[in-house]
């Protein structure tokens, strides 16, 4: 079973290159219109990226993204995805990948429990779909590269296209073999494709990719990165031309491609990328990757946010990625793969009932509309408060799904992070933590790592919290808030923020900026939650 990696600590000093991102971002020159859903939003409309809604994009695009948990931030609170690990081989080498582990492009480090044949994969998808009616998307994301295993990938997609027509098909790739496979992608109605693009300059690329396998031989160095770059750009342009919604994943590697990702963002937007997902490098030495062994660190939470913020105005950003396993099952941030091992599936009664799935999803839509209405109500209250300011703060939220504050502090394995201002409560990321509650008791040794993970937040919204963590958080300057149990997150966050602003206005408290926070390396595992 996969072991959790230890919590990372923040670097003693913030990396200078990323620290320079903000001014660079402030001068960021907008790319020409053309491509990317952002160009359809119209002036004054909200971003139509992962946080967009039906008013921000054409109806046919909304139809494609509305229940895709990766392409719509709102959907990720309600809908689940699953991956089937049918693609073990890879045609390139990334310095952040060790083949004993999942593909770091789309999966957190950790061995895949079971590699599947296409037939086994289809069986598993039908079993999960019958148990989890809100599972709306099937992705192939490794453990190698989906398009380096075209027969297995497309056999699986073809069977699912026929047998599970309501499930959206999705795949991720490094892009090397993409241009040759675009026809097959379109043929099976795979209308969501992720390409991992970490550079648009081969001089940067050669620091990330030691080799690629190209036309039956191994190519190294600058030449390898150049070929990969050209294939990625060509593949992206071809997908855009065929109407496939394309998301770009980039791994942020401090000192190698941090500021360069702004240029990546600009280039992929020009070529029609729908979303850009900038993810932190995961590089623990025990993963055995080149970066892990050479001490290349990942970014801190604020370094990651600085690069994401610097890309504002370019390709729309996804900020809710969980870097999930190649065999993940469930809502983003939860992992139910252990419930669907091959032997367990054999014993299940699989009933793929389309009507039941639809009926369930209609209920989800009702809940989603209620969440939307609650947010609008809270925003109206914020606007009426009469305190004019441009304050923005981060709040951490304990939730187990449904878009509500409904998790106990001690049961949290990841906090959702919202940036709150008088005009919005915006999901900006998540922070994994080690469970505080172990076997029914609080483990106070875990508290410092939890505090480090949300150290840049002003408050933490929970369903319940004990006296000891409450004191520890308060003395760290993070306000524990348990008065919004069961409320929708945005409504609760805005209500707390309105109170916070009122306290500032009355002189009851003085606002202070917070520091940085650590991104926990490694990931939540089912074992931790048990
Ligand atoms: Fe999977 Fe990727 Fe499709 Fe989503 S994941 S293939 S687009 S269905 Fe999603 Fe997971 Fe992040 Fe990928 S949270 S790692 S972005
Ligand atoms: Fe590993 Fe994925 Fe890179 Fe291939 S593309 S080397 S599987 S991270």
How would you explain this protein's 3D organization?
- The chain has 530 residues and is α/β, with parallel strands linked by helices.
- It is 34% helix and 15% strand.
- It is built from 17 helices and 18 strands.
- The protein has helices at residues 16-19, 21-26, 59-65, 118-131, 150-163, 178-187, 202-205, 221-241, 260-270, 290-294, 301-310, 342-347, 354-383, 447-453, 467-475, 489-506, 526-529, and strands spanning 80-83, 92-93, 135-140, 168-173, 192-196, 211-214, 217-220, 245-252, 275-280, 317-318, 329-330, 393-397, 414-421, 424-432, 437-438, 441-442, 459-461, 479-481.
- The strands form four sheets. Strands 10-9-8-5-4-3-1-11 form an eight-stranded mixed sheet.
- Helix 6 (178-187) links the parallel strand 4 and strand 5.
- The longest helix is centred in the last third of the chain and has 30 residues, at 354-383.
- It is globular, with a radius of gyration of 22 Å.
- The protein starts with 15 loop residues before the first helix and ends with a helix.
- The relative contact order is 0.14.
- Residues 70, 81, 83, 106, 137, 139, 141, 170, 172, 192, 194, 247, 277, 321-324, 332 line the site of FE(8)-S(7) cluster (CLF).
- FE(8)-S(7) cluster binds at residues 70, 81, 83, 106, 137, 139, 141, 170, 172, 192, 194, 247, 277, 321-324, 332.
């Amino acid at each position: 079973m996969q072991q959790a990696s230890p919590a990372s600590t923040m670097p003693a000093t913030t990396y200078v290159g990323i620290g320079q991102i903000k001014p660079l971002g402030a001068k960021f020159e907008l790319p020409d219109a053309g491509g990317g859903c952002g160009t359809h939003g119209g002036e004054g409309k909200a971003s139509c990226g992962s946080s967009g809604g039906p008013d921000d994009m054409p109806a046919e695009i909304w139809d494609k993204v509305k229940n895709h948990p990766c392409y719509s931030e709102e959907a990720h609170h309600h809908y689940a995805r699953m991956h089937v690990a049918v693609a073990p081989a890879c045609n390139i080498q990334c310095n952040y990948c060790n083949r004993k582990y999942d593909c770091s492009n789309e999966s957190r480090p950790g061995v895949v429990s079971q590699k599947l044949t296409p037939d086994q994969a289809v069986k598993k998808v039908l079993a999960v779909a019958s148990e989890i009616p809100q599972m709306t998307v099937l992705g192939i994301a490794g453990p190698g590269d989906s398009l380096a295993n075209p027969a297995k990938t497309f056999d699986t997609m073809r069977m699912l296209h026929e047998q599970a027509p309501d499930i959206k098909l999705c795949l991720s790739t490094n892009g090397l073999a993409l241009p040759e496979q675009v026809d097959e992608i379109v043929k099976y109605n795979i209308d969501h494709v992720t390409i991992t693009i970490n550079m648009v300059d081969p001089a940067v690329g050669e620091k990330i990719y030691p080799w690629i396998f190209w036309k039956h031989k191994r190519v190294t160095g600058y030449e390898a990165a150049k070929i990969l770059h050209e294939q990625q750009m060509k593949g992206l342009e071809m997908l855009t031309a065929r109407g496939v919604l394309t998301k770009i994943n980039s791994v942020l590697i401090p000192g190698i491609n941090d500021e360069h990702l702004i240029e990546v963002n600009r280039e992929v937007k020009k070529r029609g990328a729908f979303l850009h997902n900038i993810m932190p490098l995961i590089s623990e030495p025990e993963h055995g990757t080149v970066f892990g062994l050479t001490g290349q660190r990942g970014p801190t939470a604020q370094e990651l946010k600085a690069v994401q913020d610097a890309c504002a105005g370019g390709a729309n950003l996804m900020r809710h990625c969980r870097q999930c396993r190649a065999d993940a099952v469930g809502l983003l941030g939860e992992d139910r793969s252990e419930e669907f091992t091959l032997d367990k599936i054999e014993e299940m009664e699989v009933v793929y009932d389309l009507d039941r799935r639809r009926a369930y999803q209609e209920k989800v839509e009702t809940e989603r509309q209620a969440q939307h209405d609650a947010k609008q109500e809270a925003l109206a209250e914020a606007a009426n408060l009469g305190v004019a300011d441009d304050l923005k703060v981060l709040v951490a939220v304990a939730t187990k799904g449904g878009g509500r504050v409904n998790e106990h502090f001690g049961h949290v394995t990841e906090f959702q992070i919202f940036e709150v201002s008088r005009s919005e409560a915006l999901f900006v990321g998540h922070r994994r933590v080690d469970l505080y509650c172990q076997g029914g008791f609080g483990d106070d040794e875990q508290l410092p790592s939890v505090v480090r993970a949300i150290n840049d937040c002003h408050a933490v919204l929970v369903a319940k919290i004990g006296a000891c963590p409450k004191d520890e958080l308060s003395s760290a300057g993070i306000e524990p808030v348990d008065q919004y149990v069961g409320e929708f997150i945005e409504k609760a966050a805005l209500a707390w923020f309105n109170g916070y602003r009122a306290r500032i206005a009355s002189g009851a408290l003085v606002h202070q900026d917070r520091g940085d926070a650590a991104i926990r390396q490694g990931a939540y595992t089912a074992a931790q939650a048990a």
